[in-house]
Amino acid sequence: MRSELRSENQEPRTKNRQLITENWQPTFVKISIPGEAMPRGMTPRRPAKSGRHEGLRAAPKMAGKIAAGGQRNPSSLKSRDLARPGSKAAKAAKGYNPTAPERVSDILKRLDQLYPDVTCALTHKSAWELLVATILSAQSTDVRVNMVTPELFKKYPTVQDFARLEPQQLEPDIRSTGLFRNKSKSVVGAAKRIVTDFGGQVPQNMADLLTLPGVARKTANVVLGSWFKIADGVVVDTHVHRISRRLELTKNDDPKKIEEDLMNVIPREKWILISHQIIWHGRKLCFARSPKCADCPLENICHAEDKTWSTVDRHAGAKA
Length: 320
Description:
single chain; Endonuclease III, domain 1
């Protein structure tokens, strides 16, 4: 009885196996090609665990918008447009010398046209007043300093008046210029040194000026150039630092080395004026952030990496 039931139960299973074997056909998986329409019912491959599809590459993105006439908008230049070593732009610019006399002369000529008669923006009536104003301008603006100095010099008219002060007495008068404690020490200390060592007269040479408290090469160059008309160096402030790097007149970041580089490529008779011109250019157009490159007459000879608009290749490293 049990054997009969077992044979009856096994018979349907055997028939099912025969049907499966007879009707079996191989199944082929169709691999879809990117861009080709996928037939209905086909299931796409699951992405790999890494999140990428093997063998597929993302469609390249446009580097910039297309302006009217099929030309690329210069304002949409991306980092790959930079003339990096080995790039097409770098090969095209092979032999380019940013400090070539012809290019430097062109820069000076354009600056002369833009700022022909600019002078020091700090208000002063003597070498001493200019020295004080320059010390106060550190980490401040000329506008702020010019708001402070008229009352300051009215209260203390001579260098001897400053020499009789203690730094704490001067602090309230110059507080709004920032760093007022250090500046008070520098101004009072410089006044005392000038009175005791130089007969109350501001020195007219670099070596003696550098012995005064709070005076480095930038301040000394301002006094020598703007008051005494002595071209002993180039003033390197924040504007000159930024723009000389953008114009590739230097690759250095240290003010002293930047000054040396500028002195090597700029004629001596231009040392005083070029500082004022670049400073005014930095205030008018070549800002630290969002410079007005579209309005700049130097735009087509400037390859700065951080330009906001450009008609020429940008060079890696040429930035503020």
